[in-house]
Amino acid sequence: MAIDKAGGSKPQAPSRSSEAKPAQGPARPVAAPAVPARNQVKPQQPKGRDGFERGMTPAQQQQRLGSTPAVAPTQAPAAADRKVLEKLGLTAEDVQKAGPALPHLQKAAESVLQGHPEQALGHLRDAAFAAPEVATKALKGLAQNLPPGLGRTLLTDDRVARELITNAGLHDSFGKLMRNPTDTGALRELLSNNSARDAVLGAVGNDPAVKGQLERIGLTPQDLVDAGAAAPKLLEAFEKIQQGDVKGGLESVQAAVQAAPQLAAKIGEKVVNALPQSVKAQFQKLGITEQQLRSAGPALPHLYEAADAASKGDWGKAFNGLREAAISAPDLTTQAMKGLAQQLPAQLGAAKSLLTDDAFLRQVVTNRDLHSQVGKLFNEQTRMEGLRGLLGNDAARNAALSAIGKDPGVQGMLAKAGLEPKDLVEAGAAAPHLFDAARSFADGKINEGIDALSKAAEAAPELLNKLGERLVSKLPEGLRNNITALGITPSELIQAGKGLPDLLKAGQALGQGDFQAAITNLRNAAGKIPPSIVEKAITTTAAKLPDNAFSGIARSLLTDPNLVHQLVTNPELHASFNKMMSGDLVQGAREILGNATVRDAAAHALAQNAGFMEKLKPFGIQNGADLAALGGTAFDVMEAGAQFAQGKPGEALRSLGKALGDIPPDLRGRMVGALADKLHVPEWAGDTLAAAASLLGNEQVGKALGDAFGALQRGDVGGFLSGIATTGKTIAQTAPEAAKAFLNSLSKIPGSIGRLFEDHELNAAMVDSGAVTNIFEAAEKLGRGDVGGALAEIAETGTALLGQGEHFKVAGQELPFGSQGIENLTRMFGRFVDALPEELKERIATEAARFGAKAGLKSVPILGNIVNGVSAIGSAKDLVDAIRAEPKDALNIALAAGQLGLDVAGVVPGLNSITGPLQAILGTAKVVKGAADLIGDVREFQRGLVGF
């Protein structure tokens, strides 16, 4: 039977030679099949007196013992076998009681005879399933075969015997003890078993070998008994200490104390006694006495780690050990840190000072946030970072300040910046930033030093008033020269106080050629130093800007003392100034020109910029007064000039429209005239531009009018009239009064199309009636040669106009029009006829008779001047029928309305004067409606429309 790793016996397959054979004399029992290996046994249920788990049926018991029926207990083993069993102290009566357990007892006895008593344990455990009492007796018999020692002692103890019989987990450890009674590791394993611990502890004190071994490592049997559940860890701790693993031993002591807190003092004393003298000496260097060690408790392993690291000069590791010890023993750790400080070399002066300062130590042992910073002090590469971190901790700062100032490296760093350790102390909350500034200046990192100085000034506003002169004296010569170039004298720089960082940033930026940043930082200094210094520095710096493009604009504005004074002192302008200096110069300057307070000053300053005025001159802008009138839209005018140059007239008109809205009339006139020159449009277009000027900023208006004049330049009549129509419709939707002016301006278009708009009263009526869209549609369709479509639009317009004014009543019925409506209708159709080119009118007259005959007309100019109301009633019916017809034909409705108008006019006094023209117009309209093709050459027709 072999011993497995878990401490149980592995069953070995029986060979054929060992199987039970018939023998002379009493029959030997047949061996039961092997029981499964003990390391595979499932957790056992409580057993009964028969050795089986409670609740097992006979069949299950039989299955446990094997499928072969047991031999009757009356059968006895051979004499030779009985002699073997006597080695286990078993009698014939015991053998009779053994039953199915007999084969296992036989194997146990054989293992003893072969010198393997530890293997006998496994067989006896197997026997205990069937005969627990016999197996227990055999176990005690086994003890008699062992030499004197702990093994024999334990096997003769009833409690231990019962555990060994039922607990396979103990076999391996017990086997080790039988082989070597002084094996404390095996003893520790037995003590780790909760069931066997008390029995084992009661027996160890009676074994001389074990007792001697315990004494060698510093323990007594009673110590283990007292330790109880802590005994395994205690034994382990003393073993490690005796082997030289002091830290591991102390960690095991800590675990033992946690298991048996009531024994902490006694265990501590035992541990101290067991420590090597060299280790005690290390603790003494930290100022820790043996008495303190006895009560150190959980801190002891960390204290040892610190003491051991200190003995090797590993100061950072020593501190780490102490900071962990501080969790459970803050007072003792405080003392140990002082002891550590005494051992530190001179180059660690800051750490040495800090760890001997009582106020700082109180913070360190209770504030874990400080630990990482203090830990950095022991590494030259991170020492300054650690010092800076301590200054940033509000709780530790005051305690750290004086100690840090004693550090030679810190003193040298401060001296390079013109500072002293007391300056850090006086800086208080600003100390971390002052430290950063000094460190950066000392390392030549000027920008970082200035930034840190800014933070120091924010934390302690008066600080730089005290330190400014000394700091300035240590600045690099190049930076001081740059500040002089700003126009700031050394005496003014010393007065800067809180504004010093801004001036330093300005000087640094100027040295790098970044004028915008320089001026921005000067502006930031305003309010921190006297305004006169800032204003002088801004004008001096601005004078260095290149006099071209946008830099020239900034130079013109920022070299004017009056304007700069306003920019510095007027809070309303600060946002605009910042925009101008942060890269958005145009928007910032636009807002400044738009500010009523500084508009005049800014405009006259910009008027001195020849390059700027040269860009505006083509648009009629002549002086500062014009600029002031334009305000911020001056930049829109500049943009329009660039867009014209790029061939984008529509976009240019939109940009220019932003400037033409609210300016004096004479300036608008000049600008419109200049615009006409830019667009290369005929003289007559000036009024059209002027009428639309205030609305050019509208995206649709500006684009459409730009497209119109662009088409005019190309000779594209259709495109020109389309653009004019789109412009007019958009204006009518947004500004009706402007729409009337725009319609009137179109009357100056040469050619026949201008006549469509020359009746100003009719233009106003069209806008008021909402019919103006149709007149523009008519103009656009005429431009395409669509005379019939244009006539339909005129009919729509005429119908809308017909309903204006007071309405007639015929035979007691009110008609949908009156004298004003008839007159407007007549005038509207008259404008349309007049708008047709002369060639087309002649063609209409020539074709009138032929088309008139086909249309059923009597005579074009004579439509029957009916003089009685009966005829008027008939023509009224025709109008109603035309209105009800689907689909509706606007021209049919207009013609029917016109005929009704003629009939009514014949009986209404005062209207005879318009019946003749109305007759001619209606006749012409009917001819146009019936004609299939009246235009002929479209291009010739278009030229006639616009006089080309």
From TrEMBL:
The region called Disordered is annotated at 1-78
- Renumbered to this chain, the Low complexity biased-composition regions fall at 26-38, 68-78
Protein name per Swiss-Prot or TrEMBL: Uncharacterized protein
